[in-house]
Amino acid sequence: MDLLALSRFQFAFTAFMHFIFVPLTLGLSVFIAILKTLYLKTKNPLYDELSMFLMKLFAINFAAGVATGLTMEFEFGTNWFQYSKFVGDIFGSPLAIEGLMAFFLESTFIGIFLYGRGRISEAMHTFSAWMVALGSNLSALWILIANSWMQTPTGYKIVETGQGIRAELTDFWAAVLNHTTIIRFLHTVDAGQITAGFFVLGVLAYFLLKRQHVEMAKLGMKVALIYTSIVSVLAIIFGDISGYYVAKYQPLKLAMAEGIWNTEKGAPVIPIGWVDQKEQKTYAPIAIPGMASFLSYHDFNAEVKGINDLVKEYQQKAKDYESKIAELEKQYAVNPTPELKQQLAEYKAYAKAYNISHADLPSVNVVFQSFHFMIGLGFLFVFVSLWGLYLLKKGTIYQNIAFLKTVLYSIPLPFIASELGWFTAEVGRQPWLVQGMLKTADGVTYFNTSANVLFSVITFILIYTGIFVIYVKTMKKKVQEYAKKDIVVDYETVPSTVQVGMYSKDTKGGV
Amino acid sequence: MLPMELFTLQGLWFVLAGIFLIGYAVTDGFDLGTGFPMIFMKNEEDRKILYNVIAPVWDGNEVWLIAGGGMLFAAFPAVYAASFSGFYIAILLVLWALIGRAIAFEYRNKSESLAWKRTFDFIYWIGNVLPAILFGCAVGNAVVGVPIDKDGAYLGDFFTLLRPVPLAMGLVSLFMFAMHGAAYLLRKTEGSVFEMAKKYAVISAFGYLAVVILTNVLALIQAPYLYENYLKYPIFFIVPAVMLISWILYLQFLKSGKYEKMVFISSVLSGATVLNVALASFPVFIRSTINPEYSLTVFNSASSELTLKVMLIVAVIFMPLVIYYTRYAYKVFAGKVKGDTSYYH
Questions:
Q1: Which of B226, B70, B228, B16 is nearest to B141 (CA)?
Q2: Helix, strand or coil for residue A395?
Q3: Res A503: pLDDT
Q4: Between A307-334 and A251-258, two packed helices, what is the crossing angle to 10 degrees?
Q5: CB contact under 8 A, B63 and A107
Q6: pLDDT of A287-343, one tens digit each?
Q7: How many Cα neighbours within 13 Å face the side chain of B289?
């Protein structure tokens, strides 16, 4: 088997598996911290009970996230030797900062948060919940800074050193706040909040369906619904802005996501379609004219570049750099200045990176379908959460079996949406590791053997599948166990505004 | 006198890389070292204590490795790339071990079944022993030398790495972590685990001494160049002297029952052990056995000045903060872990 293909598969697989656990960590940590804060303010023990229960689920999720995440940091070095050398000067920093600024914070306070109760004050316990939330979301920030730099690199120059050609940092803040960092961060972190929102809604719906812990579920639903509605609507807004930035800075990705092969004005959106890569055609039973132009440039008539024209454009670019190299080399022979040497290195890298053909493109259909399904799910989340809000206002949410079942079975959907978004972003980035600078094929550890990578791929599949199975089973078990358990709550301390007992399991009415 | 090269930005980063390695050895040393006796313990309660002594802090301890890896990537990308890709299978083994350890921590107590628990106990044990040996082996291979070409590409295979000196260094790190873990157990436990830890401390201390001597004998024969720096800068001999004094004090404190001091002195010993290797190798990170010119050094593999400066600022701001709240975490969980304490939830 092909070394490059195996290495790509390994990275994709391990990142995919790791990204199952990440969104829930991002969202659930915030949600738990909110509940803890509500408890601190209202002294309502139900908030406390719910937060402590969710904390157990969080711990299970966090362990799987840490275990699978270790691989990610190692893999740049093990499988992407040339990439690591090429961009280490810039890419390594956010990873290191993530460790120092965020992961230390999260991991230290998670110990205090999980085991410290009884040893520290309630305020301190709430504070450590916020530190875990801050830590995990700051982690996401730095990882996305690193990733966004690969998508839309800025703040660098390319130079030749004794260790070969590499990108060097010229402007830290430009590299950190490159064109797409902030929106990518907001969009991803928001997706994590949706994941947690639906997770909590689903679990509480399960309790309501089972008529267990009804008071707690009722209270939790209220908070979770408000929370989920806000973050679901935000996802649409962030998604729209994100599309705008992709159109501007990654036109090839946009063209693949929308299935546009030839440049056109007033490009349509194809809600349901099929991309035939061989024929270079996108089959579209329905098409909304002008919509792709509108969404990308906020103008129905804007020109959207197609895949074919972009590939030609990049090839032309490669040729232009090629011709400049010849000129520069002549100049350099006469006058070998460091500036000329640096420019030569830069042009050589660009000439190589932009020299792409149709064969280098990823599966356009994967990008297209992931993108469209993600958007479909995004709207579904808004619909479900607004439906919930409406039922909440009407006061019938706890009896509405259809709604409760919908949210229960919706638990996996935000996880899937996050993965689809990741597919769109990462498959859509191909054929580049660093856009316009380094092709994926040029980043691999070329001296590794296929046998080595095949071996590691197989072991990762086994180990990660094992973790996933144990994870799902343990999560399910914890929820089911808890549903059987009676909560010990000191109802004396519940403020009178909360109608305790109204929906408890021995009451005939209720759910 | 100290070599002037240390006083450059790159030299400073060599020191910082060393601090990270020492930070890792000291903190995750608690985790690894307390895990080794796992399979020798028959009693379920005793096994639980081994988890409990570090359950609240292990996550934070392991971040030293992750942040350290990030630091290496940022400051010396060529070294990061060459070592991780070159030691491919070894790195994989470390990864599986660490993954297994993390999973065992959280999932062991999620089922009442004894088979389930014993499986995770075994995974956990491997997860502690294997990295402890492999970290030493990896450092050993880097300083003794591996076949890397002028691009830093590794031309050997997994079996190239299995040589006497690096393997002996793997044992040194194993016993170093064992001593450290034993001291921590004495500080944190009572009863049968405490009694076990007393023996464990003695065995690991003498084991450590034996493998350090063995390593030096082997190195004198097979890698005499590792002594060049010491002969050039005799001041470096302070470090082995510190190792020796710490080792003696370790046994002294064990005898007199001063366990808090024992933890401190085993931290010093771990730090000195790491420093000792770093000084022997400086300024080389990874020696090339093909051509000394191809060796990756502090100077030819470092990042650009701007990156090093930025990362220095970041480290100066965040390191003290990290140390501050890590201390807080240890303070919150101070005191002995009793048999009936369960941090599990």
A1: B226
A2: coil
A3: 35
A4: 160
A5: yes
A6: 888 888 888 888 888 888 999 999 999 999 999 998 888 888 888 888 888 888 888
A7: 14
Place of tokens 């949706």: A194
Q: From the CB of residue B256, how many other CB atoms can be counted at a distance below 10 Å?
A: 10
Compute CA A106 distance to the chain's CA centroid, rounded to the nearest angstrom.
18
Q: Do A321 and A407 contact (CB within 8 A), yes or no?
A: no
pTM assigned to the model: 0.90
Q: Strand, coil or helix: what is A439? A: strand
**B278 vs A301: CA distance, rounded Å:** 64
Q: Is A262 helix (H, G, I), strand (E, B) or coil?
A: coil
Identify the closest residue of chain B to A60 by CA–CA distance. Answer: B106
Give me the pLDDT at residue A489, please: 52
Residues of B in contact with A108 (CB under 8 A): 57, 59-60, 63, 322, 325-326, 329
The pLDDT tens digits for A146-167 are 999 999 999 999 988 877 889 9
User: What six digits make up the tokens of A337?
Assistant: 């200045």
Question: pLDDT digits over B38-68, tens only?
Answer: 989 888 888 888 888 888 888 888 889 888 8
Residue A87: list chain B partners with CB under 8 A. Answer: 77
For residue B174, what are its two tokens? 């194993």
The token pair at B166 is 């690096």
Distances (CA, A) of A46 to A57, A113, A214, A228, A463: 17, 18, 10, 20, 38
Name every residue whose Cβ is closer than 8 Å to that of residue A379 and which is 6 or more positions away in sequence: A236
The reported pLDDT for the residue numbered A507 is: 33
Q: Could you give the ipTM of this predicted complex?
A: 0.89
Token pair, residue A78, equals 């093990």
Q: Where are the alpha helices (DSSP H) in A80-164?
A: 81-97, 104-115, 122-151
For residue A128, give the nearest of A140, A114, A138 by alpha carbon: A114
